[in-house]
Every structure is written in structure tokens, then in C-alpha cells.
Amino acid sequence: MDELQLKKEIANLREELDKFISGPKDKEYSRRLLQLSQKLDALIMAYYKQYKGKLYS
């Protein structure tokens, strides 16, 4: 994934997570919240590993 794709994917996932958090809480809530947050963590780590040098340039 290039930088723009990673940023877009992170933004989309954050939006999905925000919508999910504000929605109804049922038995699937915890499982889905964990799944979304782990995916977001993985994308953020991939972004920083790949582009951390650009942050300080």
C-alpha cells in the first residue's frame, strides 16, 4: 500500500469505528469493537513503519 492508500484506509476505518461506537450495544458489540480497533492499530503501525522517515524530513 502506498502512503495515500494507507491514510485513506485509516480514515475510513476511523469513521466506521466512530459510527459503530455511537450505535446500539449488543452481544456482537465487544467482538466487533475489538476487531475494528485491532485493524486500525495494524494500519497505523504499517503507516509509521513505512513512512516514519517522512515525518521528520
Approximate shape? elongated
Q: Spans of 5+ residues with little confidence (pLDDT < 50)?
A: none
DSSP strand count: 0
What is the H-and-E element order? HH
Written overview of the protein:
- The chain has 57 residues and is mainly α.
- The chain has one domain (3-55).
- The chain has helices at residues 3-22, 29-55.
- It is elongated.
Give the key terms.
2 helices, single chain, Spo0E-like, protein dimerization activity, mainly alpha, 82% helix, 57 residues, HLH_DNA-bd_sf, Spo0E-like_sf, Spo0E like sporulation regulatory protein
Secondary structure: elements and pairs:
Elements: H1 3-22, H2 29-55
Helix pairs in contact: 1-2
Task: Provide a quick synopsis of the model.
GO terms for molecular function: protein dimerization activity. Pfam families: SpoOE-like (PF09388). The chain has one domain (3-55).
